[in-house]
Specification:
- The protein is an alpha/beta fold and about 290 residues long.
- Helices cover about 30% and strands about 30% of the residues.
- It has a single domain, classed as Rossmann fold.
- The protein is globular and about 55 Å long.
Length: about 290
């Protein structure tokens, strides 16, 4: 992490301000250290990542478990190779929509929610033209640790802060972020999606934006039925609606943003994919970016 970040951080347990203690620093980046609040809550900075002690979700993208069986680069390559070609192209279009909008705004801080393997972050490292700090938030300390090493290779000059935390309870002060982005990360939060969106709105400055991408499918399609069946088997109900155009729009409007616009990156017919339930092979889908103004 970089020192400037400590000015907007709060303790996730009591929301009080945090005091920074530095153990190891390299090129202005704090590699090892500690954050403490007046209520005696302590948080470790290790390998450049702040660990606020979140528990990874068990239903989707448990990176700590995955890394027991494959290293970071192997897993990256495996997932990339399993992604259909039309999905790769559409993903790139969605990322370009986000990055182009970002590069045309006057911003100093970018918050990437549920960064995961850094699909959007990697493109930011290549294409970001602004002198802005990026803050990556994810439940997994493990994935952020490897993201940091990857981005150091791609763009060693970009200032990126990594926070292992719960995105429904961000350790960030209200009205302190210039732009928030998420590339499928919020959508993967399942039943916690409304809380994640509301929390992003809390930390955004007035008149600033959330750019949130998602995959949409048709209600009553086979893919919809498959997702609903899997979610219900896990005791999660009604969340499948978030994968429809109406549901995706509704969940953003429910957070009471001043304005919500839906930008379609592309639509297509899904090809076979062994790693994801949706989009379902042979069925229509689209990838969209919700542009939400606070």
């Amino acid at each position: 992490m970089f020192k400037e970040l400590s000015k907007i951080l709060t303790c996730p347990e009591c929301m009080r301000e945090l005091t920074l203690s530095i153990i190891k620093e390299e090129n202005d980046e704090i590699i090892e250290g500690k954050l403490s609040c007046c209520n005696n809550h302590h948080w470790i900075i290790k390998e450049g990542v702040i660990n606020f002690g979140p528990k990874e979700q068990e239903l989707s993208n448990n990176w700590e478990e995955m890394y027991k069986y494959a290293d970071y680069e192997e897993l990256d390559e495996k997932i990339l190779n399993s992604t259909p070609e039309n999905m790769k192209l559409i993903n790139n279009k969605a990322k370009d929509i986000i990055i182009n909008k970002l590069n045309n705004m006057e911003i100093k801080t970018v918050l990437d929610i549920a960064t995961g393997r850094g699909m959007l972050l990697s493109e930011l490292a290549k294409k970001l033209t602004l002198d802005a700090q990026v803050i990556c938030a994810d439940l997994s300390f493990e994935v952020l640790k490897y993201d940091r090493l990857k981005i150091k290779k791609l763009n060693p000059n970009m200032k990126v802060n990594y926070i292992a935390c719960d995105a429904t309870k961000l350790p960030i002060k209200e009205n302190s972020i210039d732009l928030a982005v998420s590339f499928y990360g919020i959508e993967n939060m399942l039943d916690k999606v409304p809380y994640g969106i509301a929390e992003v709105k809390r930390v955004l400055k007035q008149d600033k934006f959330l750019l949130n991408s998602g995959i949409l499918i048709k209600e009553h399609s086979q893919g919809y039925k498959e997702v609903k069946g899997w979610l219900n088997s896990q005791g999660i109900y009604e969340v499948e609606k978030l994968f429809t155009e109406e549901g995706f729009m509704d969940v953003h409007q429910a957070a009471e943003f001043r304005r919500v616009d839906m930008i379609t990156a592309a639509e297509d017919i899904a090809q076979k994919c062994d790693t994801d339930l949706i989009p379902f092979e042979g069925e229509w889908f689209s990838v969209v970016v919700a542009e939400c103004e606070k």
